[in-house]
Amino acid sequence: RRAGRGAFRAAGSVKGMRSYLQSTRLGWTIIATMFAVGIVESPLAPVSIPTHGNGEGSINRYGGKFQGLLLVPLSAAFAWGLITALVPFQQGKSDPSVSRVLIRLGYTILLIFVSVFSDLVLWINGVVLTMNYLLLPALLLMGAALGNLVLRAVQKDRGSALPG
What is the maximal distance between C-alpha atoms in the chain? Predict the structure, then answer.
């Protein structure tokens, strides 16, 4: 018995692990792109950049380059890693549709980070856009994904999971 094969069995199977890696690869690519853009934009950014906006879309807090350009991708990586780390442990214990929905929820949360980061990069480049145009659709998608996850989990507990 080779070392490491038990990890694949615990995750479901080698095929299941490959499927998991393929379904999360795009998220890690998006995060790596956010880091690359943050590094490229750092020399162009002013010392003080917006880090928070209110519900009306007005900037109400400023911070440094690290807080805006690197903390957002770091937070996105942390959130994505947490959500996607749950999936291998759920395989074999839960319905595959619940795992797929959990990955979709992770992508919608990642979309929120991307929308905040995009608004910040646009601001650095002179394009002032109310964050609500980017953030509101992302929040609506996250609400729909979260509702779908809860629905799948409840149906799984009742033993009547929907196909899909």
Answer: 60
